[in-house]
Design goal:
- By secondary structure, the chain is of the alpha+beta class.
- The protein has helices spanning about 25-30, 45-55, 60-80, 85-105, 110-115, 120-140, 140-145, 155-160, 170-180, and strands at about 5-10, 35-40, 185-190, 195-200, 210-215, 215-225.
- The protein has one domain: 3 helical TM bundles of succinate and fumarate reductases, CATH 1.20.1300.20.
- Helices cover about 50% and strands about 15% of the residues.
- Strand 3 (about 185-190) and strand 4 (about 195-200) form a beta hairpin.
- The two termini are about 35 Å apart.
């Protein structure tokens, strides 16, 4: 058994399949994706999966890494606009910047994997993304308040978004995608239908990363090369 804490090495897609005869949707998944990287199911899996998958996708693109680093630094303005005290987000934002700088220096998948499997670093990245999601929801409250099931948006953000180990909802995914300007492709195995369900967030954009959703859990998918 591989010794990983939060994000695994890439594995063949078949590691996800039940041993019995494969349903059609698993065959479809295998036809489209060659491998998977499993993420710990601790309620933080979406945030961890998105962060790792995005950094991995730009790991060898110096311009994209620099642009992402600048985006992270600029988010301090988003936090301030939402009323966050700097002491609450600065450490977590600096952790994200540090990880991006490590990627800029090394461009090594092994280094990225090591950082994500260090609990203090990995959890700090998750906390940063949760707080950023909350800030974006609050800064765009006129749009998002209709989509949350809570007494009000602020209560939702404090209880459901900022708190570690709380599973994310579609509204959180949309907010974080907007905040970081990242397009996400989510493939879902949920439901009894024979077909996979595909969601691209935001709609119509070209996704830079692919996540598998199954029973409230997210793993990272890798498409098969196009012929």
């Amino acid at each position: 058994m591989e010794a990983w804490r939060f994000v695994s090495s890439r594995e063949d897609i078949s590691t996800l399949f039940p041993a019995q005869t494969l349903p059609a949707k698993y065959k479809d998944l295998s036809a489209q994706f060659s491998s998977v990287r499993q993420v710990r199911g601790d309620g933080n899996c979406f945030y961890r999966a998105l962060c790792f998958a995005h950094l991995e996708s730009i790991l060898h693109n110096a311009r994209a890494l620099q642009r992402f680093k600048e985006t992270i630094i600029e988010t301090s303005n988003h936090f301030s606009s939402a009323g966050f005290d700097e002491s609450s987000f600065r450490h977590h934002m600096n952790t994200m910047v540090h990880v991006v700088e490590q990627c800029q220096r090394d461009e090594q998948e092994e280094q990225l994997l090591r950082l994500f499997n260090e609990q203090m670093t990995s959890d700090s990245l998750v906390q940063y993304l949760r707080m950023l999601t909350s800030a974006h929801l609050q800064n765009h409250a006129d749009f998002f308040y209709n989509f949350v099931e809570a007494p009000n948006l602020l209560v939702y953000c404090h209880q459901e978004v900022e708190a570690m180990a709380m599973e994310c909802d579609h509204v959180d995914i949309l907010a974080l995608s907007q905040a970081l300007d990242i397009c996400i492709h989510i493939v879902s195995l949920e439901g009894d239908e024979e077909q996979l369900t595909h969601h691209v967030i935001p709609e119509g954009a070209e996704p830079s990363l692919h996540l598998l959703h199954q029973t409230s859990h997210y793993n990272i998918l890798y498409p098969r090369p196009q012929n």
